[in-house]
Amino acid sequence: MNRPVWFATLACFLCLSQWMTADVRADNWAHWRGPTGNGVAPDANPPVEFDSRKNVKWKVKIPGRSSGSPVVWEDRVFVVTSEPASNANRSGGLPRLSFKVLCFDRGTGNLVWDAVATTSTPHEPTHATNSFASASPCTDGEHVYAHFGSRGLYCYTMDGKLVWKRDDFGNMRTRNSFGEGSSPTIEGEMILLPWDHEGDSALYALDKRTGKTIWKTDRDEPTGWATPLVVPSDGKKQVIMNGENSARSYDLETGKELWWCAGQTQRPAASPVYADGIVYIGSGFRGAFLGAFELDGRGDIEGTRNVVWHLDRDTPDIASPLLSSGRIYFYKGKSGLLSCADAKTGKLFYSTQRLPGLQNIYASPIAAGGYVYLFDRNGSVVVIEDSPTLKVVATSSMGETVDATPAIVDNEMFIRGEEHLFCIAK
Question: What residue stretches are annotated with the Pyrrolo-quinoline quinone repeat domain (predicted)?
Fold first, then answer.
């Protein structure tokens, strides 16, 4: 969501695909990138016009700080946060924090339960715009999982009872102490945990019911903030990961690396998206690359037919791309300059268009009901038509910073701002 807070969002940003788990329905938003893994709510129709007061069904104050996105399952909304512990008064140094999971009633916004996963003092600082709890939670409707990075991964029942925890992964050492933020992904009976940092990087597959390691694959990658995406291929499934050295694919069952392609830029934060046999992976810090990859390659696929197309300018940094209706939407770096391309060919419908109020972006774009929703760190909201022609249909402001990617379910949108959780509804 290498980890200026921006990455938080990204983390806040990492990703269930529509093939990821049979339990995830289109009317839930179980991961920060939604039911398709692409940022789309296929059957939802939230309001187009809203702000911090208009079409607000409810809003609640959220303690502490986090850029982790809300996730929604039926009548429950989950968020994570970190806040100063009750005994946190100290002079100098890093604060002692309580890392918490909060569950709200979707209909009223009332707090149903909150749980302190752990209380500890972080071992290293984070970027000023990042928090110490920037990874988004995820759920399969039976359990909810919260990843606090070096503080561990925690599994709760939907009623807030701790089932298991894993806090034995060690301490991450992030580039320039930018902080942590990659989100885990649920797939079948596994939960996939990315662990890219300035030490020994790896991708873990854990048993989601026990937390025990099923496989661990070492990764030749420095700090990154992307979230894994699981996609189908020839009757099997691949785990797609971004990386500074290479975009990579792994066999879901074994963790074996299948293919890789160099070309990404420094400290990648954007997560992959997928449709119709093609996966799209990009990054945009101190360079630019966005590629479309077929999945049947093996080994190094750079320069092969498996690279369907690629762009080498104006590609996304913190915010992940949006893949909707055969089009891929993405920002230039962290700016609000928006581009839209044909997903099959890479041909641009429009490029680096400046939109009112959009200047500094962490939250990933989302789509529903024929519209694309865009959020700026300054709280600005721009709604455009989901079409090859750029048309702004509404602009507004939430009145506070929005770093986290919102969630859309049915006719409601859940926006996690710097201070509040909003439920937007007509």
Answer: 101-284
